[in-house]
Amino acid sequence: MNSRLRGLYAITDSTLSPHGQLLTAAEQAIHGGARILQYRDKSGQPSRRRQEAEALLTLCRQHRVTFIINDDVALAAAIGADGVHLGRGDGTVKEARQQLGGGIIGLSCYNEWALAETAARAGADYIAFGAFFPSATKPAAVHAAPELLLRSRHELNLPVVAIGGITPENGADLIAAGADMLAVVHGVFGQPDIQSAARRYAALF
C-alpha cells in the first residue's frame, strides 16, 4: 500500500483561505503535520488557479508532502502535481490515467460500496467515503457509515480516506475502523490557529 497516502489530508477552500492567504495557510497546515494537501478551488478562474496550484506544488515539494488537485486532471497534468481527486461527474479513472500516467488518482465513493469496487477494478490509488458526520463544507452530503471503512480494510487493497465533519475528537474512531487518511477542510483551514489545529489531527496517527 502506498506509504505516502496516510495521515492528515488537508483540503484547501478558497472561501476560508482567499487569494493572498492560501500559501501561508497551507504552510501552517503542513507545519502542523498535514501529509497530503489537496488544492480545491471552484472559482473557475484558470490563470489564478494555475498560479496558486504551482505555488502550492513548490511548497509541497519542499516539505515532501503529497500534492493533489481536486477534479481538474488537465491542471494536475500540466503542472506535474502528484495526483488528482475525482468526484461524481469528473471523468473516469481510465481517462485520468491516460493524462496523468503514473500519478495518484483518488475517487469519491460517498456512501456507495459499488463505486469503491469499481474504482478498485479501474486502478484507482485510493478511495474516499463520507460524510461521516455533519459537514460545514457540504451540509447536504450523504451520510456514510464506518462499516464501509472496515469492509474496505478487509476486501480492498487500497488506502481509504474518511471525510465529512471530522474533528480531533471523532477522528480516532474512524482510523480504528480502517481510515488511512482523515480529510479535513474547515477543521484545519477554518480555525484561528491552523498549525495547532492540524497538529491535533496529525497526533491521531
Report a brief summary of the structure.
With 205 residues, this protein is of the alpha/beta class. It has helices spanning 22-31, 46-63, 73-79, 93-100, 113-122, 147-155, 171-177, 186-189, 194-202; strands at residues 7-11, 36-39, 66-70, 83-86, 104-110, 126-130, 160-163, 181-184. α1 (22-31) runs parallel beside α2 and α1 (22-31) runs parallel beside α9.
Please explain how this structure is put together.
The longest helix is centred in the first third of the chain and has 18 residues. The protein contains 9 helices and 8 strands. Helix 7 links the parallel strand 7 and strand 8. Strands 1-2-3-4-5-6-7-8 form an 8-stranded parallel beta barrel, surrounded by 8 helices. It has a single domain, classed as Alpha-Beta Barrel (TIM Barrel). Helices cover 40% and strands 19% of the residues. Helix 1 runs parallel beside helix 2 and helix 1 runs parallel beside helix 9. The chain has 205 residues and is of the alpha/beta class.
Question: How many domains in all?
Answer: 1
Specify the CATH architecture: Alpha-Beta Barrel
SSE pattern = EHEHEHEHEHEHEHEHH
C-alpha termini separation: 16 Å
- Per CATH, the class reads Alpha Beta
Helicity range of the residues?
Answer: 40-55%
According to CATH, what is the topology?
TIM Barrel
Mean pLDDT: 95
**Radius of gyration, rounded?**
15 Å
Q: What would the principal axes of the Cα set say about the shape?
A: globular
Supply the number of helical segments. 9
Poorly predicted regions: none
> What class, by secondary structure content?
alpha/beta
Specify the CATH homologous superfamily.
Answer: Aldolase class I
Main sheet makeup: 8 strands, parallel, barrel
Say how many strands there are. 8
Strand composition percent:
15-25%
Please state how the strands of the largest beta sheet are arranged side by side.
1-2-3-4-5-6-7-8
